[in-house]
Structure formats: C-alpha cells, structure tokens
Amino acid sequence: MGVTLICPNLGCGRIIVVPDSARGQIVRCAHCNQPFLVPNGAGVPEPASTPPDEDGNGSSRKSR
Ligand SMILES: [Zn+2]
After folding, report:
1. Residue 26 C-alpha to ligand 1 middle, in angstroms?
2. Predicted pLDDT at 42
3. Residue 63 has what DSSP assignment?
4. What spacing in Å lies between the alpha carbon of 42 and ligand 1's midpoint?
5. What is the 44 CA–ligand 1 centroid distance (Å)?
6. How many other CB atoms are found less than 10 A from the CB of residue 19?
7. pLDDT at 31
8. Burial class, 16, CB count within 10 angstroms (exposed 0-12 / middle 13-18 / buried 19+)
9. Distance from the CA of 16 to the CA of which of 6, 27, 47, 55 falls in 20 to 30 A?
10. Could you give the CA distance from residue 47 to residue 20 in angstroms, rounded to a whole number?
C-alpha cells in the first residue's frame, strides 16, 4: 500500500503514489520536480475510542 496524492503544482496535477513511510516527509513530484509535504495520516482518521470502564458497579449489590 502507499499514499496516493495529487501534485499541488497547478501546472502539473499528476497523481503521485508514495510509500507509507513517506508520511510527514517532503517528497518530490516525479513529473515536475515540485517538492511537497506528504500529509500524515492520509485516509480515514481513526477516532480515539476509549474502552468502557467496567468498574463502578457492584458495590451496592445486595443479592444474597
Ligand atoms: Zn507535479
């Protein structure tokens, strides 16, 4: 897999595929040699989901 980008150079506008390891780094367009930044985390952003806390009940349980 890689990161698919479009060259920000308006006179170029080519589709560029860079490896995942290039995220957050400056790469050059192979067509127009324009350097640009590969955005970090291109794609679907993952929301930070916290697991539900399971403790909090059980103290006031009188089933006996
Ligand atoms: Zn370009």
Report:
1. 13
2. 47
3. -
4. 19
5. 24
6. 11
7. 94
8. buried
9. 47
10. 20
What's the 14 CA to ligand 1 centre distance in angstroms? 6
Distance from Cα 1 to the centre of ligand 1, integer Å = 21
Q: How far is the CA of 5 from the centre of ligand 1 (A)?
A: 10
State the residue range of the domain holding 6: 2-37
- Total domains in the chain come to 1
The token pair at 31 is: 């067509």
pTM of the model as a whole = 0.57
Whether residue 23 contacts residue 2, with contact meaning beta carbons closer than 8 Å, is answered with no
pLDDT in single tens digits along all 64 residues of the chain:
788 999 999 999 999 999 989 989 999 999 999 999 998 864 555 556 777 787 776 666 777 6
Q: How far apart are CA 62 and CA 43, in angstroms?
A: 50
